[in-house]
Specification:
The protein contains three helices and eight strands. The protein is of the alpha/beta class. The chain has one domain: Rossmann fold (3-Layer(aba) Sandwich). The chain starts with a strand and ends in a 6-residue tail after the last strand. It binds xanthosine-5'-monophosphate and magnesium ion.
């Protein structure tokens, strides 16, 4: 796997230190609020697993699976729900846990949907942010790292479903795409 990497952008140590830091901030923010952390599958899974272990408060978790309609040329914001929550969010403090915000389409859609479902609050924590990819004006409330305008893999992010298990984040060698 490491042999497939052109470069490593964020090391395992850097990720773990950042997750600890975010866990402490979020514990303070959500203390006494019994938040519902919603992991967006599949990419948000490693971050969710690590983050909740750094949060020393009462909280619940649930997962959603979504996919964007069509391809990049289709205007973003159209999202298909593949798996919805098992939890009623009315009156709940919802925190989305994401791998990356690129166009912003996925989270803009989910945020609106959860306001409609009468969540008490809807916020976003993402381990990665790619601000250069933004098509919809949406900001995460907490960001781990900004990444450049490159396709990145690892720590949940895939290339054709592989590389999600890497503990670091990097860019693949060009020959991998051939
Ligand atoms: P939005 O709606 O913000 O969606 O464009 C973010 C989703 O797009 C995928 N994505 C990536 N996946 N490497 C990946 O493996 C990347 O560099 C990348 N950029 C965007 C990802 O599925 C994310 O949830
Ligand atoms: Mg994804």
């Amino acid at each position: 796997m490491k042999k497939d990497m052109e470069k490593i952008l964020i090391t395992e140590e850097e990720i773990q230190a950042k997750v600890k830091e975010l866990g402490a901030i979020l514990s303070k923010e959500y203390e006494g609020k019994n938040p519902l952390l919603v992991g967006v599958l599949k990419g948000g899974l490693p971050f969710m697993a690590d983050l909740i272990k750094e949060m020393d408060i009462y909280l619940e978790i649930d997962f959603m699976d979504v996919s964007s309609y069509g391809n990049e040329t289709v205007s973003s914001g159209e999202v298909k729900i593949l798996k919805d929550l098992d939890t009623n969010v009315e009156g709940r403090h919802v925190l989305f846990v994401e791998d990356i915000i690129d166009t912003g389409g996925t989270l803009a859609y989910l945020k609106d949907m959860f306001k409609y479902r009468k969540a008490a609050s809807v916020k976003i924590v993402t381990i990665l942010d790619k601000p250069s990819g933004r098509k919809i004006d949406i900001q995460a409330d907490w960001v781990g790292f900004e990444v450049p305008h490159e396709f990145v893999v690892g720590y949940g992010l895939d290339y054709i479903e592989n590389y999600r298990n890497l503990p670091y984040i990097g860019v693949l060698k060009p020959e991998i795409y051939q």
